[in-house]
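Assess this one:
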Amino acid sequence: LNDPRSNILVNGNTAVLEGALGQLAQILCRQFLDPCVQISGNGRVSRVSPIVSKTGGVGIGTVPGSNPILENNTILLQALGALAVRYGDNSGGIFRNNQIEGDPPTAGAGLVLQARQAGTSGTTGIQLDGAGSIPSIQSNRIGVGRIAGSVGIRILQGTQARTISGNTFLARGEGVGVAIQAAPGTPDAVVAAYLAGNTFQGNFAQRVTGEPAPTPTPEPTPTETPTPTP
């Protein structure tokens, strides 16, 4: 699947994109529009292998409101700032038994060198864009890139409960990547659930991190002027 003219669209609730005869179908995403595979509806993508080899490219993305099943896929990121899977606003569904490689060994050294020269951030496995993006992410192997700024799962907004459990995060660098980057204001109980429900192998900069919620700036209370007594 290597037509450079447009991306691959999986539209509708019964649409299926699946590797033939149980083998992974390679999708070379060097020239495709982003995302390389775009899903609209509740379709299924299984046993395909997107290879994202352009800077800032996206392997699989969902249209807002979609709830697809993504399973048994292998996604390779071979470029700076590449993103494996991006969930649009209010997207959900199931993401299970997939493998994401942040920067494969064949391209890892080159990526590190480029990152130092260009000062570009690393790769991202899964990004949840909106407050309503709540897919069930289970039983996946996610290799977190060896470039500083690499993230396994990035949650941009919202604090509602998400099923992120049974996954194995593998640090590909020595303390440069973050396994799960939670949204600002994520409750401590949710962070604890991420730590307890997943496996972390190797040295991460942080396993689970979240920026504190912004502190509201108090408005000054006007001082009342006493009324003179006649």
